[in-house]
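Retro notes (design track)

What went well: tokenization of the new backbones is finally stable.
What didn't: we kept losing track of which sequence belonged to which structure.
Fix going forward: every design gets posted as structure first, then sequence, in one message. First example under the new rule, 625 residues:
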């Protein structure tokens, strides 16, 4: 990087130059291999970040590559998916200008925060000296001139700072990185960069920019907590392990699988924990919760001890706390005390890998009752042998399940699947049979439409940095595609090929399902059910994708889809398959109850009847004991 002056002990750099130089000096060791901690910067430049930060990024481009985004929100999604694909061992930056560019990233910060993923957000900010105020894109607060729109990041980041003097970087940058790499506090960090302060020079200690090698902390659990948990498990008749996303981030998938097999304990996975175990693993009993499998939910309902590993026990996992018996004891193994102690759990606060090893040793030769695992095996066999859900529309369009199963049959073990929100997470949870560990990314912590393609792009960048090979397969609905599709273009420009399976059902079908299931009239979800001034028409998604440089085609049958998928596998660039699907055919049998606010007063008897039915579920909710 070009420097104005540099002595033996100090380097005179602008704040922006020092920030970039520090990021470029950070390393991490994973599996004995040292690499850059920061994999790159997703950037859209504006007057708030182009002149100073842009200048610094240009000088560092060989070490810290800059990826030009098309939308600030999607850049944050890509950065989050990148971190998830690297199991929180590598981080990307997302940077925007001030004003709307910054607020566009707030949703992405919420995705990273809800999913406990490290992303460094850098946004331009208003002038610290205030002389030109109000400036372009500034939102003024009459009673507090220190507030800018960047304060909106405070609720959705783990670390927040506004850099009002270059010297602040000496404390703020190490603190932000320490937060993002802490297994207990992991999440996004935010730095607001006032435009004037970015260009101010300061004599930084040269030692500040020395290469720094990070390692992820593995906190060993308290031995008394392990002993208490082990004693309770040894008295259990029907124990179950819930594997959450933290198992992936601790690199503890093998450890968990070995413990489960040695002690004969069934394992169910959360959505974030999907592919902790491969489908063929003898202890894998499917996905628990609202989008779960019948066998997993029944097992958890009958269990007397729930060993929750690396999960925050979100309502889709717990069925709004109706999946588990009121008397079942929860044992929470988690790096975060906040998660380990939920619902009066017996806590084991510590790293999942270390905690599982300690628990394994404490359990000694104990094994769960074989009658319990025999019962679980019967339920699993029944679930796996159920007929495939097929479409029922007069047009003969396939169901979601048929598309998911077709991809599952035809994909390679090394392929990675990415999706989010809508109906696809449930269909993949119910039907996907993982052949490799950590191969599924379903963003359901924030359930954010628009994550799919952008997240696929970020995951693809990460996947091409590894030696695993394989394709990145994105499942997206037509609603999410219309919401945010511009990274089709990014993937083509950057040479990061995606296979995008676009399931077109004519609108927001899963919300229509909820609407109708609660006694409401179909309204404002399907394109056909909206109040338009003209007759609704279908979007030509294949043509749209081609306009962004992708290969694409439209199909409306399973045979046509399978042929198209094989063409996509051999394509030299991003390939979009627009497949028409039945909007009313869903995988049945696995769903748990879910808390939804229902009207106490309505003109529709159907709504009141559905509300009465819903109230029966509330009776089954655990009260925290």
């Amino acid at each position: 990087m070009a420097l104005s002056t540099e002595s033996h002990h100090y380097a005179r750099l602008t704040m922006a130059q020092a920030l970039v130089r520090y990021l470029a000096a950070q390393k991490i060791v994973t599996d004995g291999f040292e690499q850059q901690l920061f994999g790159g910067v997703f950037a859209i430049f504006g007057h708030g970040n182009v002149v100073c930060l842009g200048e610094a990024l240009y000088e560092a481009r060989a070490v810290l590559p800059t990826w030009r985004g098309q939308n600030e929100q999607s850049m944050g999604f890509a950065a989050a998916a990148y971190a998830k694909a690297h199991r929180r061992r590598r981080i990307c930056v997302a940077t925007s200008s001030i004003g709307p560019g910054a607020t566009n990233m707030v949703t992405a910060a919420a995705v990273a925060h809800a999913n406990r993923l490290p992303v460094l957000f850098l946004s331009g900010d208003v002038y610290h000296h205030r002389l030109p105020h109000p400036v372009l894109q500034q939102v003024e607060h009459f009673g507090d001139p220190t507030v800018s729109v960047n304060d909106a990041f405070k609720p959705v980041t783990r670390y927040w700072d506004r850099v009002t003097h270059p010297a602040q970087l000496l404390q703020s940058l190490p603190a932000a990185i320490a937060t993002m790499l802490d297994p207990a506090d992991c999440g996004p960090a935010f730095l607001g960069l006032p435009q004037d302060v970015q260009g101010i020079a300061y004599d930084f200690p040269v030692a500040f920019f020395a290469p720094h090698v990070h390692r992820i902390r593995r906190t060993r659990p308290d031995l008394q907590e392990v002993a208490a948990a082990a004693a309770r498990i040894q008295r259990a008749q029907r124990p179950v392990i819930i594997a959450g996303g933290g198992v992936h981030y601790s690199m503890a998938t093998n450890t968990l699988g070995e413990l489960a097999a040695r002690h004969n304990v069934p394992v169910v996975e959360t959505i974030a924990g999907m592919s902790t175990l491969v489908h063929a693993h003898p202890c894998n009993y499917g996905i628990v919760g609202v989008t779960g499998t019948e066998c997993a939910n029944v097992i958890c309902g009958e269990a007397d001890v729930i060993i929750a590993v690396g999960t925050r026990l979100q309502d889709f996992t717990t069925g709004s706390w109706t999946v588990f018996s009121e008397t079942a004891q929860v044992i929470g193994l988690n790096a975060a005390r906040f998660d380990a102690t939920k619902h009066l759990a017996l806590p084991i606060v510590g790293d999942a890998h270390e905690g599982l090893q300690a628990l394994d040793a404490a359990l000694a030769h104990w094994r769960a009752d074989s009658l319990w695992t025999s019962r679980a095996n019967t339920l699993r066999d029944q679930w796996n042998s159920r007929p495939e859900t097929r479409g029922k529309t007069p047009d003969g369009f396939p169901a979601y399940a048929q598309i998911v199963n077709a991809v599952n049959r035809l994909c390679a073990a090394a392929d990675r699947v990415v999706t989010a929100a809508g109906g696809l997470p449930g269909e993949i949870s119910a039907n996907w049979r993982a052949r490799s560990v950590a191969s599924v990314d379903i963003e359901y912590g924030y359930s954010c439409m628009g994550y799919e393609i952008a997240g696929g792009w970020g995951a693809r960048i990460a996947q091409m940095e590894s030696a695993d090979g394989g394709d990145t397969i994105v499942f997206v609905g037509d609603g999410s595609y219309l919401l945010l599709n511009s990274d089709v273009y990014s993937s083509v420009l950057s040479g990061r090929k995606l296979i995008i399976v676009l399931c077109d059902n004519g609108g927001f079908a899963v919300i229509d399902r909820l609407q109708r299931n609660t006694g409401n009239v179909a309204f404002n979800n399907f394109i056909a059910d909206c109040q338009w001034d003209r007759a609704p028409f279908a979007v030509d998604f294949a043509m749209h994708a081609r306009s962004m440089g992708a290969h694409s085609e439209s199909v409306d049958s399973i045979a046509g889809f399978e042929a198209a998928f094989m063409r996509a596998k051999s394509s030299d660039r991003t390939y979009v398959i627009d497949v028409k699907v039945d909007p009313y055919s869903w995988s049945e049998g696995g769903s748990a109850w879910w808390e939804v606010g229902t009207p106490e007063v309505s003109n529709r008897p159907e709504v009141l009847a559905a509300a009465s039915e819903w109230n029966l579920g509330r009776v089954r909710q655990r009260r925290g004991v």
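Added context from the reviewer: Residues 223-384 form a domain with the Rossmann fold fold (CATH 3.40.50.1220).
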